[in-house]
Amino acid sequence: MPDQAPISRPESRPESRPYLFRGQPAADTWTLVREGEAPVGGAAILPLADWLEAAPSATLAPWLPADTELTDALAERLAEAPLIAVDFPKFTDGRGYSLARLLRERHGFGGEIRAVGDVLVDQLYFMTRCGFDGLSLREDQWLEDAQRALGAFSRAYQPAVDQPEPLFRRREREWAQAREEAAAFA
């Protein structure tokens, strides 16, 4: 309604992008370097082409554009990275979900996969289901809202990176276990 005052938040927005790691607010020690920018020192997330040209380092990581073709050769090289950032140029671009899932399931990447770019609170639950564990939110998003959004669903029906077993299989197992326990007391 036009005559209502805007909602006030308990704390001011941080200078940097809000960041969650495995669902918890965390300090982001990495600097995201966009194409055409020069790294300023410290841990840096570089455009993929720049990262591929650089010597392997624990303080350099790549960010993949949404249109990256994840070949076996590229995935093998990415396995050396301390983290992999996947760029979301627009919140409506879902290609980054596929990249994260392929990195986790097909290529077995065990390090941090971070969502960067136009990352909104509404996407976070689905991003974690696809294998993202680092979430660098758009500047206008709030950590409190993000944490609430991650807990919006108590169970998922479909299998995914975070829960490979579908709900009906989990229920079958729980019911079988309950029947066994009941039989033990009979």
Could you describe the 3D structure shown?
- Residues 1-20 are annotated as: Disordered.
- Pfam families: DUF934 (PF06073).
- This is DUF934 domain-containing protein.
- The chain is built from six helices and eight strands.
- α3 links the parallel β6 (83-88) and β7 (112-117).
- The N and C termini lie far apart (62 Å).
- By secondary structure, the protein is α/β, with parallel strands linked by helices.
- It has helices at residues 48-53, 72-78, 95-106, 124-130, 143-150, 167-185, and strands at 19-21, 24-25, 31-32, 44-47, 60-64, 83-88, 112-117, 134-136.
- Strands 2-1-8-7-6-5-4-3 form an eight-stranded mixed β-sheet.
- It has one domain (19-154).
Radius of gyration: 20 Å
How many helical stretches? 6
Strands in their spatial order, largest beta sheet:
2-1-8-7-6-5-4-3
Q: What does the main sheet amount to?
A: 8 strands, mixed
- Please give the alpha-carbon distance between the first and last residues: 62 Å
Unreliable parts: 4-15
Helix content percent band: 25-40%
Listing every helix as H and every strand as E from the N terminus to the C terminus, the arrangement reads EEEEHEHEHEHEHH
Number of strands: 8
Total domain count: 1
- Assign the structural class, choosing from mainly alpha, mainly beta, alpha/beta, alpha+beta, or little secondary structure: alpha/beta
Q: Tell me the fraction of residues in β-strands, as a range.
A: 15-25%
Organism: Halomonas alkalicola
Pfam family, one: DUF934
Protein name: DUF934 domain-containing protein
Region (Disordered): 1-20
